[in-house]
Amino acid sequence: MLNFQDPALKQIHEKIENNERLNLSDGLKLFQTNDLLGLGKLAALVKERLHGPKVYYVFNQHVNYSNICVNRCKFCAFRRPKGHPEAYALNIEEILTKLKQAGNSIREIHVVGGLHPDLPYQYYLDLVRSLKENFPHAHIKAFTCVEIDHLARISGKDVKEVLSELKQAGLSCLPGGGAEIFAERIRQKLCPEKISGQRWLEIMKIAHELGIPSNATMLYGHLETLEERLEHLLALRNLQDQTKGFLCFIPLPFLPQKSYLKEISPTTGFEDLKMIAVSRLMLDNIPHIKAYWIFLGLKLAQVALHFGADDLHGTVYEEKISEFSGQEGEKALSREEIERVIREAGFQPVERDALYRPV
Ligand code: SF4
Question: Is the shortest distance between the CB of 254 and ligand 1 below 6 Å?
């Protein structure tokens, strides 16, 4: 019998016990509660039902092939204009050399970058093909919907054709970035040049229909309201009902330190844990919820495993986006370290591939 300080949680517990879907008003109650531990218990209950004691991680590497981007999203500390002293674009040989430094037991290569004004479409196809040829045991998880839209524009092809060609070159799945917050009101303020939330969902739908699964993300903790967070989650849940293509949801806290929105206070641990728990409870049809330790910090990500998260992302050899954002702490973990963190939290580590199959 679970006890709750907040009677609203008791009612929601009954709905969960009866497998009733939560609505926006339930979501608001979850966000507004101060009974953090009660909220955690609810999310942990659902996580336990889905995954028992298992917590997943992947032996992976990130490739941020270029930080040059034609967009100017205000929350982005990674992007540099062409010609800036810190701007870079890696050629395929340089990427392969970097990846080989970490050995060849990599299971997943996570590739994202800016919208480069000059890199040709062929570069992206060759990159995916070379990664697959050189790391045949790894899944290539590459390009946000924002990049896919960019590739469609520079190639003159439609999204379906671009995704089909990438799949043929070796693409396994999409990482799910670029979703930010779907609310147009916020996108106009934060990232007016970026594709709309509607377009993001449309591209994901096409990918899923082509048999390319994906993750989904949300950037929270900036200008959005709690309702806008929930509308974002419900839009994902709605698409998932149709396609079943989302593997995992990743709530990403906004890191203001080096962005153009420094006046915004960073999220607190309380808020981050609530976000993980609410995601687990609202997204009843998305199998996995990730505690992305690179943004949350490893210690909070470990605690998040008791708030509904069942995935700790991966070992990560090199990652530039959080580094440019001023996030401090660990930059990479060994298998032993990540497994220790999971075991110490009381769970059973399961090494997985990019599609969440145990390896
Ligand atoms: S978030 Fe992505 S699209 Fe926006 S400026 Fe940064 S790299 Fe470019």
Answer: no
Site to probe by mutation for ligand 1, drawn from 68, 73, 88 as the one with most ligand atoms within 8 Å of Cβ, is: 73
| Pocket mutation for ligand 1, best pick of 65, 144, 146 (most atoms within 8 Å of C-beta) | 146
How does DSSP classify residue 358? B
Q: What pLDDT is recorded for position 284?
A: 98
Instruction: Find the helix or strand (DSSP H, E) in which 97 lies.
Output: helix 92-100
Tokens matching residue 26: 């339930």
| Predicted confidence (pLDDT) per residue in 79-103, tens digit | 999 999 999 999 999 999 989 887 7
- What sign for the dihedral angle of Cα 297, 196, 76, 116? positive
Please give the pLDDT value at position 101.
Answer: 82
For residue 146, give the ligand 1 atom closest to its CA: 3
Residue range 24-352 forms a domain whose CATH class is alpha beta
What would the pLDDT profile of 263-288 be if each residue is shown by its tens digit?
Answer: 999 999 999 999 999 999 999 999 99
Read off the pLDDT of residues 142-168 as tens digits, 9 standing for 90 and up. 999 999 999 999 999 999 999 999 999
- Please give the single-letter amino acid code of residue 138: A
Residues of the binding site for S-adenosyl-L-methionine: 75, 180
Describe the crossing of helices 145-155 and 159-169 by its angle, rounded to 10 degrees: 100
| Separation of alpha carbons 67 and 85, rounded Å | 11
Cα(65) to ligand 1 centroid in Å equals 13
Please tell me the residue having the least CA distance from ligand 1 atom 1.
Answer: 76
CB 146 less than 6 A from any atom of ligand 1: yes
What are the extents of the domains in the chain?
24-352
287 φ/ψ angles, rounded to the nearest 5 degrees: -65, -40
